[in-house]
Amino acid sequence: MQRSTIIVAGGSGKRMGGPIPKQFMLVKGKPLLCWTIEAFHAFDPAMPIIVVLPETQITIWKALCIGHGFLIEHEVVAGGEERFHSTRNGLAAITGDGVVAVHDGVRPLVSKEMIARCFAAAEEHGAAIPVVPITSSVRRVDDGTSEPIDRSALRAVQTPQCFRTDVLRKAFELPYDVAFTDEATLVERTGAKVHLVAGEEHNLKVTTPADLRFAELLLS
Length: 220
What we know:
Distance between the termini: 34 Å
Order of helices and strands: EEEHEHEHEHEEEEEHHEH
Number of strands: 12
Strand content: 15-25%
Largest sheet: 8 strands, mixed
C-alpha cells in the first residue's frame, strides 16, 4: 500500500520569543524542520513527503535548504488560514490511494518504530493516532471553581496521525469547524473510528526555548 507523509509547519515562533518561525530555528546547525523531514526519509527513503508552509515562508525555506545543503527530495505546498486548510492543501498534492501520515513540522524526534506502528495500524483500521498517558495531575476549571479529573482515563495525542487516503479525503469534504483541533477529530465527525497506538514520551512538540534545548540534547 502506497505511503505518503504531509508535514505541516505553520508556526510563527511567538512562544519562542523571537521573530524566527520555530520550524526554521537551528538545532545542531540546521533548521528544526530538516530534522523532521529526515526522520520520515529515514523510515522510507522512497516515500513522498509534502511539506506545508505559509506561502510567505516558502521562499525563505528554499533558501535555507540551499544554504544548509539540504537535499532530501520533498514537495512544498502553500498552507491556509488554519491547520484544517493547510492539511487539506497537502492532501490535494497526493495522488492515488494508500495511507497518509500527517505530522507536526516541529516534532523532530519521532522514531522509525513509531512511524511504522502508526502506518500499520492505519492500514488495518483506517485511522490511527499515537497517544501517551497523562502523568501530571489535571483539574477542570469552570467559572472560578475547579475539580480534579481522573488522569488514568486521559491520553495526550501526538503525531503522526495516519489514515487511509479515502478516509481522510471523505473527512475533508466537511466544512471547516473551529472544533477541529486535529485530523482525528475531523475524521471522527464522519463516523469513522480512530485506533490508538502507543506514542513516545520523547516525541515532543517543540514550542518553547526549553523544548528546543531538550530536542538538541536528544538529537546529540
